[in-house]
Amino acid sequence: MRSARLVLAEVAEMKLSLVIPTYNQSQILPKSIAAIFRQTLPREQYEVLVVNDGSTDETSEIVRSLQQEFNLRYFSQENKGAGAARNKGIGEAKNEIIVLIQDDIIATSNFLGEHRKFHQQHPEENTAVVGFTTWHKDLKITPFMHWLEHGGPQFDYDRISGKLEVDHLAFYTCNLSLKRKFLINNLFDESFAVSGGTAYEDIELGFRLTKKGMRLLYNPSAIAYHHHPKNLKSVCRRRFFEGRMSHRLFAKHPDLKMVGDKDSLWHNITHFKTGFLSDATRFRLTSFFLNQFTIWPIEKLAYFLENKINVPLVYKLICGYWYNKGYRAASGGSGGGMGGSGGPSSARGGADSVGSEGGSSTKGSSATPTD
To answer: Which CATH number fits domain 4-231: 3.40.50.150, 3.10.20.810, 3.30.70.1170, 3.90.550.10?
Structure first.
């Protein structure tokens, strides 16, 4: 039996392995890597692993050039999706703590130190830590982008504010750390990647780990910035794809809930949420009221307002419509597609692909999905 002194020494010496999956983000990736090597934590206390998920841009050349400046480990694989890229990095990691971010995340200087501090305070193998992520200060934050992280589908930090222990819905892989021993035999499900991108592999793993005893703690001082502007059209495309993938998610986990168990009625009302209803009931209600006839004026209004004013109910309705449409498409209904005349306001040009959310994509996608 190990002595208490030995255990304390091991806790004090906890080292980190940071994994960055990347796909076609050669413009922002160097900034993400540079931020990781400007940490207050001494470099000998962490390693950085970059996994190129079959990028078709200059990612490989750029990362190899950065290897000369930074002591990072680089891996490349054929395009399999964000989950597979993370699994590769986790498998190659050498240290006790796995830290996960995305290739469009800019970490603050004490980011790794804050993750390490929480793990030192909570050395239990089943303890994981999620930090706080918000838009990068260099971006122009539109009213729509503000809604995305305050009641919208991007993040839900308002719900977990002030809490220490949070649920699987806060398992955000853009700012997350776990013990490698707990994670190594419970990796990401790589089947949540299809042509068009990946979605919900983070929520699926978070739910699965919770059932295995994971305790997810929130450290709001582990701050990172998301350097990826969004607009209504790109998010509607993303919601359509998430709807498709949610069909697979619920088939694998029929008992999974996509609303927080601790949401109060007041929180649900003020954020135009329906947490007091079951997933099936919400789907039936929104599908009944939101159809190709009723959505048209709401969609036009949403596009008119997205850069002018924050109207949560309007944005929620349009995003919910495309989510339901994707779910129906996956379940054999008449969901239709997101391209051509079937897409949201398809006459508008310059739309992001369904995978334009950072991290990793799969063949057939022109950008990268978020988690």
So the answer is: 3.90.550.10
- For 314-368, what is each residue's pLDDT tens digit? 999 999 999 999 998 998 865 554 443 333 433 222 223 333 344 445 543 333 3
Domain borders along the chain are: 4-231, 239-342
Residue 171, classified by CB atoms within 10 Å of its CB into exposed (0-12), middle (13-18) or buried (19+), is: buried
Enter the pTM of the model. 0.84
Strand partners, 127: 215
Nearest to 130 by CA among 262, 221, 51: 221
Burial bucket for residue 193 (CB in 10 Å: 0-12, 13-18, 19+):
buried
Question: Dihedral angle at the C-alpha atoms of 218, 252, 187, 6, nearest 10 degrees?
Answer: 50
